[in-house]
Amino acid sequence: MTIDVRPASVFEDVRTLLGPKSPGASVCWCLSYRVPSKVNNELRGPARGAYVEELCRTGPPPGVLAHDGEEPVGWAAVAPRADTSFARSRTIPHVDDLPVWSLWCVRVRPGHRGRGISHTLIAGAVDFARSQGAPAVEAYPLDNGGARVDLTMAYAGIRSNFERAGFVHAADTTSVLAGHPRVLMRLDLR
């Protein structure tokens, strides 16, 4: 198995990872943190996919995709924090004024889990942010203390996976997801 992480600029590959089974469904498409909440609530059905398609066409792409050969098997959302709702968050603090990038979603397709793809995605997202001039990358994973986490809510990642990737605890947050506190982890790229 050779996993290759690439910028998410091919919409059909992004659709494979994020698109709903029903075209009219109003599911995440990984937009809930990417756009202001008003816009997120207004984007319904196919409009959500169209918005993501536009993000793929305009730079920088909305994240990175892991491929096993040509098959897309994983997704990580990464973008400048200033371009996300984390810029205005009351629960995820700002550590300083550094123009950091946020890494807020890591997803591996069923049938491909348990092969280390999430670790490869985190590293690929960091490499992508670095190539775009990011001075640091932040993540807001669950601090689950080893407890089991529902896979649906594990999209934010697990603290230990980010520690393994070299991120360090930078701050506590008041955000809770799936009953677990979230922490702010940071990797300095300077």
UniProtKB/TrEMBL annotation:
* UniProt superkingdom: Bacteria
Which Pfam family would be a valid example here?
Acetyltransf_1
Query: Domain named N-acetyltransferase: which ranges?
Result: 38-190
* Name assigned to this protein: GCN5 family acetyltransferase
